[in-house]
Description:
Elements: E1 28-33, E2 36-41, H1 45-49, H2 54-62, H3 67-81, E3 90-94, H4 100-107, E4 112-117, H5 120-129, E5 136-139, H6 149-154, E6 158-163, H7 174-181, E7 184-195, H8 207-216, E8 220-232, E9 238-248, H9 254-257
Parallel strand pairs: 3-4, 3-6, 4-5, 6-7
Antiparallel strand pairs: 1-2, 7-9, 8-9
Amino acid sequence: MTTRPHSHRYPIRFPASDQTLFEQGESSFTTSENGRETCIRFHDYAAIYARPGLYEQLFYDRLKCASPRKLVELLTAVAAEAGEETFRLRILDVGAGNGMVGELLLDQGAARVVGVDILAEAKAAAMRDRPGVYDAYYVLDLTCDRDPLLQELKEWHFNAMTCVAALGFGDIPVVAFRTAYNLVADDGWIAFNIKESFLDQEDTSGFSQLIQRLIHDDYLRLHHLQRYRHRLSIEGRPLHYYAVLGRKRRDLDEACLAGL
Length: 260
């Protein structure tokens, strides 16, 4: 995948002080527009998406993010090993952002790709930068299980789900992951990634216990687990994530989420 060309390039400056001890989601950078400097946190996606090309320039050009391509390539390969072609997949892309994953899925020939994100700014950026990639794009809070848009999503009859670089940091909490997971048919493909520290025993986000329960309690049949370099930190250190791919066995219920 090549990042989308944009005529405007932003000056990006990282703080001079060492941010090694900061949480990954609290890292920030400074840019300038029309003579005014603006400090933006990495996870202030609304501000980043509002500036065409800034997301790609920051995360892919400067910090060498590999996750969209990595997860899509793994999903394609793992499904093929199981005898399933990509053109049969109807994929829910959770935390779709400005459409980088959706574009790759479309390039691989996915039958349907539907995006969902909590931010209206994400949808606007996807429609601006990658028109025609998604069959539909929903702005939706997946923690609200009574939203009428969920019924529309069910009617797509998804048999696969991707969630790339969106879990943890408060972006997509455990309960939202459950809602998305349960929109996928049994035996459908689940592909997501997560920061390696979220799988530590000391993890407080709930994802470590959730993934253990997914696998050990037969909610997910694991096909592939791989540690890889997600991107670089602003100090140039590699940040490692785990790619998790498997087939859904059954819906996530209250027992699975109890105590998380």
